[in-house]
């Protein structure tokens, strides 16, 4: 009855664990399928804030290879290759373009950099300080020549990032689309308050929002770069509700190889244990390890050997006595040589009865038996002979005592 109950308990616990594992697996599959655990404007997201629709659509076009990159920017220096960086910070994108994309652009590549949408600036713009007045107020004197100040990325690219202030909020609420400079393009939805200012002559304005440049382009070596102040037009929501195919074609350009960069969003290809298991098809090994772990826990919680019935105390006492005697025998065998066994026994016997006068005659008889024994005499035979002699003398003493009493 107890065994059946244990089996039933094990089956119930196993079923509950399987249900729990299945539920967790389903939950993770839903999370990964929607991709909402990834940053906004990632090509891995399928919700309105992602860009998976654009990625999947471009991947189906003939003559165009589309893939994601999860490693640091190491682009092939060959023409007709483009890279999309969507939803990045404006300073981060310009830094990447200035330090990592320069060889790629000089060799004929095309980079499309779309910034993360920014909320409006609620502060009024303040006029920049006149640095010339500060220099005139400084004390004159002999000054060492200072090295020329290194140009910032904004200065090298000939661009400044700005945001609309609160006085322009009402105009932003009324106008929700950016207008193209070319009549061949369509208006696109616009959600960001960012725009570009202080453009150098190398830049070409493609779209404006409230008469401010928001999508610009320039050539760099044999390649070109496009800066976009908003990434919304690439999102899944815009692809479904307000898609502009002509604008997307114009921005991506005539490329045959297109990369969706994910590293600037913090998504890298750090291989985990689960990724290695999937790559080398070791799911069966993992399942076997889980089964072994379950069996180990089961063995620790429930003994595999059935419980024994309680034994009587007399049986336990007899076994304890036997074990004690066996232990004493083993101890004597280890520490007393066979030749010195009788010598040790006699010495212990004499030390026990040394102060008893009535035992002196037994000592004399014991010395006599020892003198008669030879080296070949077995210790057991000698012990039996001594015991027999003592018993005979004891029996004769009792007989003499009884006869004396009768008389």
From TrEMBL:
<feature type="region of interest" description="Disordered">
    <location>
        <begin position="115"/>
        <end position="152"/>
    </location>
</feature>
<protein>
    <recommendedName>
        <fullName>DUF4350 domain-containing protein</fullName>
    </recommendedName>
</protein>
<dbReference type="Pfam" id="PF14258">
    <property type="entry name" value="DUF4350"/>
</dbReference>
<dbReference type="InterPro" id="IPR025646">
    <property type="entry name" value="DUF4350"/>
</dbReference>
<feature type="compositionally biased region" description="Basic and acidic residues">
    <location>
        <begin position="118"/>
        <end position="152"/>
    </location>
</feature>
<feature type="domain" description="DUF4350">
    <location>
        <begin position="45"/>
        <end position="251"/>
    </location>
</feature>
């Amino acid at each position: 009855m107890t065994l059946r109950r244990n089996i039933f308990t094990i089956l119930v616990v196993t079923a509950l664990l399987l249900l729990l594992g299945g539920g967790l697996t389903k939950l993770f599959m839903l999370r990964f399928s929607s991709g909402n655990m990834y940053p906004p404007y990632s090509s891995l997201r399928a919700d309105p804030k992602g860009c998976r629709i654009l990625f999947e659509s471009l991947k189906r076009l003939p003559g165009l290879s589309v893939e994601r990159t999860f490693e640091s920017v190491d682009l092939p220096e060959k023409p007709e290759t483009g890279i999309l960086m969507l939803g990045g910070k404006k300073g981060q994108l310009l830094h990447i373009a200035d330090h990592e994309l320069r060889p790629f652009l000089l060799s004929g590549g095309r980079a499309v950099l779309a910034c993360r949408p920014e909320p409006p600036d609620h502060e009024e713009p303040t006029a920049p300080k006149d640095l010339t007045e500060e220099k005139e107020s400084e004390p004159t004197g002999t000054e060492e020549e200072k090295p020329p100040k290194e140009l910032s990325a904004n200065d090298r690219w000939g661009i400044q990032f700005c945001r609309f202030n609160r006085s322009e909020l009402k105009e932003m609420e009324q106008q929700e689309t950016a207008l193209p400079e070319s009549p061949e393009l369509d208006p696109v939805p616009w959600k960001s308050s960012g725009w570009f200012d202080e453009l150098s002559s190398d830049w070409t304005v493609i779209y404006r929002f409230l008469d401010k440049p928001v999508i610009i382009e320039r050539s760099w070596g044999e390649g070109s770069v496009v800066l976009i102040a908003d990434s919304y037009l690439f999102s899944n929501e815009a692809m479904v509700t307000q898609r502009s195919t002509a604008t997307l074609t114009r921005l991506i350009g005539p490329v045959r190889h297109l990369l969706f960069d994910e590293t600037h969003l913090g998504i890298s290809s750090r291989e985990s244990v689960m990724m290695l298991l999937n790559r080398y098809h070791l799911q069966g090994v993992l399942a076997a390890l889980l089964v072994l772990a379950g069996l180990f826990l089961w063995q620790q919680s429930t003994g595999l050997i059935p419980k024994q019935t309680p034994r009587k105390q007399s049986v336990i006492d007899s076994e304890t006595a036997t074990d004690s005697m066996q232990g004493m025998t083993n101890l004597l065998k280890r520490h007393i040589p066979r030749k010195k066994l009788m010598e040790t026994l006699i010495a212990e016997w004499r030390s026990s009865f040394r102060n008893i006068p009535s035992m002196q005659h037994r000592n004399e008889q014991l010395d006599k038996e020892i003198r008669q024994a030879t080296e070949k005499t077995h210790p057991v035979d000698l012990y039996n002979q001594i015991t027999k002699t003592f018993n005979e003398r004891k029996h004769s003493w009792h007989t003499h005592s009884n006869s004396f009493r009768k008389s």
